[in-house]
Amino acid sequence: xxxxILFRVGNQTFxxxxxxxxxxxxIENLTIIPDMSSHIIGIQDVEGTITPLVDLTERFxxxxxxxxxxxxxIIVHWKNEKIGLTVNEVLSVETYYxxxxxxKVDMEKVExxxxxxxxxxxxxxxxxxxxxxxxxxxxxxxxxxLQALLKIEQINDGH
Length: 159
Prior knowledge:
By secondary structure, the chain is mostly beta strands. Helix content is 11%, strand content 46%. The strands form four sheets. Strands 3-6-7-5-4 form a five-stranded mixed sheet. The protein is globular, with a radius of gyration of 16 Å. It starts with a strand and ends in a 9-residue tail after the last helix.
């Protein structure tokens, strides 16, 4: 049995193993950083840690989330750090059995989606859901940008 968070990016449902996540938060006190890639929304303080936020709708489909106030952000473990994946909506937490999860078939694209960051697929009664591997979501250049944001230290004003 494996628990997954199901979420919507655009019109597509995706899953991520709950073991790869820390929590779900809403965007509050967002700081926008100029001259970053379009999929990077900015940074936010999440319990004392500066956390970069990535718009997955922009990252996957080149369409920005229209209303960030109504979106959800899944804080995930990425390269021994935490980043936020901002999605249109978190749908649910589901438990899947091994026989429902199929390993990714070696192919370059599934319905126009590059599959390098998809680790497997879940077969439900209604549809097939790609399972994302947060470690593989970004190429080297995108990863460098996120790592630069992760180097920003928490500002302590002494209060």
